[in-house]
Amino acid sequence: MHSEVAKTKQAPPGAVMYKDGQECPICGAAKLERKVVDEKFQYKGHALVVPDYVIVHCAVCEDSLVERESVKTSQIALKEFFKRVDGLPLG
Ligand SMILES: [Zn+2]
Predict the structure, then answer these.
(1) Helix (H, G, I), strand (E, B), or coil: what is residue 71?
(2) CA of 42 to the centre of ligand 1 (A)
(3) Domains of the chain
């Protein structure tokens, strides 16, 4: 079964850092707004919250992009999280 993770779009590897006030790379019609959030991930009924998760949000296309640093941080945290959940006894 596939994991049920990450609704937020993640920046492709090697992507540039997104900045507050930068033009949206998707629609080009608006400036990006930088936000620091607590991002919640779900896996097999368990939740993991990654604090200080930096996203840039576009008000026009309603898309959110994740900063590279946050992708890195969250991927490490998620790996640990998956391992922990998979290691839990069933029931
Ligand atoms: Zn946009």
Answers:
(1) helix
(2) 26
(3) 9-86 (3.10.20.860)
